[in-house]
Automatic annotation (TrEMBL):
Compartments (UniProt record): Cytoplasm
NCBIfam families membership: gltX_bact
Keywords: Aminoacyl-tRNA synthetase, ATP-binding, Cytoplasm, Ligase, Metal-binding, Nucleotide-binding, Protein biosynthesis, Zinc
Function: Catalyzes the attachment of glutamate to tRNA(Glu) in a two-step reaction: glutamate is first activated by ATP to form Glu-AMP and then transferred to the acceptor end of tRNA(Glu).
Protein name, entry field: Glutamate--tRNA ligase
SUPFAM superfamilies associated with the record: An anticodon-binding domain of class I aminoacyl-tRNA synthetases, Nucleotidylyl transferase
Record family assignment: Belongs to the class-I aminoacyl-tRNA synthetase family. Glutamate--tRNA ligase type 1 subfamily.
Record-linked Gene3D superfamilies: 1.10.10.350, HUPs
Annotated motif 'HIGH' region, positions: 10-20
Amino acid sequence: MTETRLRFPPSPTGYLHIGGARTALYNWLYARKTGGKLILRIEDTDTERSTQGSIQGILDGLEWLGIDWDEGPYFQTDFSHEHIAAAQRLLNEGNAYKCFCTQEELKAKREAAMAAKQDQVGYDRTCRHLTPEQVAEKESAGLSYVVRFKVPDSDGILAYEDKVLGRIERRYSETEDFVIVRSNGKPLYLLCNVVDDIRDRITHIVRGQDHMTNTARQVLLYEALGAPLPVFAHMPLTLDLKKAKISKRSHGEIVAVHFYREHGFIPWAFCNFLVLLGWSPGDDREIFSREELIEAFTLERINRSNSIFNYRKDDPKFFTDPKAISINEQYLRAMDLDELAPLVQEVLEREGLWNDAYLDGRREWFLHTIDMIRDRFHTLNDFASLGRAYFSDEFTVEEKPLKKNVLKHPDLKEWLPTLAERYMALPEFTLESAEQAARELAEELDIKPGIIINAMRTVVTGQLAGPSMFDILMTIGRNKVVSRLRAVANLFPEEN
Ligand code: GLU
């Protein structure tokens, strides 16, 4: 069997969009599944819109997602001579022709065709019938021209097999003689893309259904260039709840891969979310390890119908598709601690909360702590925000527990420091001794133990909820607990 060769050919005109990331992921999965190759090709022929920053952003995004490639990055502009040679070959072999019609002439033709209600599609082929002498004459008169592809004349059909959509057919007469070289001599993307795919020996093209009109024309180019057709698989589009294409203009940063990185998503969890936007395994599984997904992935199971990116701009509860968040939470809870640790490290470093001792002397403490607190977290960033009190003495106490558990009982200004002194005096600070001291104090004061315990949670962690209180105390350690309990008065408004 010939080796499968897939490609991801982004145009570097913006950041890596989740649609682009999904395309890259599907191609990568299929290359890995079949033991083939993934080629990264930067389609930078649009020199006005392509930027270095965008290229870097795409490379960083792929690296973050864990999508690696086997060849490239190749740059389309490095192969301009091949694109020009291909256009020349099409001209030489009579599969293309020079068209001298001006913009004004084309416009007038279009209007006339519309008025006459002709069913001719697009360009009326005037220049297709020029004799070589007429062409030479126009050229020597210095008239500018574009090069058009000569769509076969017969009333046949062009056809290809699409792994997702089945056999696709289109009558030749439905395709106009399309332009392959602009009047400035630059070949169009449509041609460059095919020339590159032929040179790169691409066997499978997996891309969005929005490229299907290109595919119809490109199939003709493959035939004219005498190259075998690759296998096509057109993926559904990703739409919003109102069935509009998701875009930066309407949806903002949530369509960019870097948004998920900045918001503390686990890269593979995000890939797991992306793959389900347009593919399903055929059963009810949703969570896949890398190996499981490579094993399960097939082009045939790519959905035909469009997928929905479920994002409600005005719902503050969800800052992106809740499914992306829920998958991330599931990974966060189940992930191997050794795999989770470096991801948490990255976030803590970014927030200035990291301590190198977490790698050796305090490694065990660190792993235990992240394991204990991860249960309620949604993203990696929560380790630095909701979990801040575990890594720093500077944390904010949330307003809700502050009001509910602390300010309501001004006597806590005495009670908690009393408890702090008892904790200092304990021969050993253990789960049992800490709990017993708290309960004894409540009993002496004739109050519910919950009052002490909830206040303690608020003062020690800043949070309303979390792991078991006495586990927290052991993790944070006697000295820090004692100093936070002693400082409770600082949380009350100053008295005059
Ligand atoms: N550069 C094109 C894009 O970013 C690639 C299209 C293709 O996959 O052929 O949309």
